[in-house]
Amino acid sequence: MSFRVATGIVAVETAIGLGFALYILLASVFGEPVDQDKGISEGLYLLLLGLGMLATTIGMCRGRRWSRSPAITMNLVVLGIGYWMVSGSGRVAYGVLILAAGLVAIGILVRPSLYQALERLHEERVDQARGD
């Protein structure tokens, strides 16, 4: 159960991140930004990060052990974004939601039961590959 919740949170964060990256990129190309070159480079950078998030999400959906560490790292960044929104941007409600999502995801991702579930999935894959 907790594995599905963590995977769902990471998937939603990935979709939001990719959507924001595409918005920045398209607004910089087709809109009237103050600095088009900066907007395009920022959009491309965020798109690359989003693709990394997508790889992590796919890894979690497939039960890959390696996906846990980048998911935790990604949610540490989410906590930083949430903190900035609460303290620096004046968007307290959004910041609290982002902080809550990051804390819940990290709380689930560091649980031993999640690690054990990933280990079981890995062992099942190894056994299937061997033909056991």
SSE order and pairing:
Blueprint: H1 2-30, H2 36-61, H3 68-89, H4 92-109, H5 112-130
Task: For this entry, give a set of tags.
132 residues, 5 helices, mainly alpha, flat
Your description of this structure?
This protein is an all-alpha fold and 132 residues long. Helix content is 86%, strand content 0%. The chain has helices spanning 2-30, 36-61, 68-89, 92-109, 112-130. The two termini are 27 Å apart. The model has no long low-confidence stretch (mean pLDDT 90).
Summarize the structure.
With 132 residues, this protein is mainly α. It has helices spanning 2-30, 36-61, 68-89, 92-109, 112-130.
N- and C-termini, Cα separation: 27 Å
Low-pLDDT runs of 5+ residues are: none
Number of helices: 5
Please count the beta strands (DSSP E, at least 2 residues each): 0
Helix content: over 70%
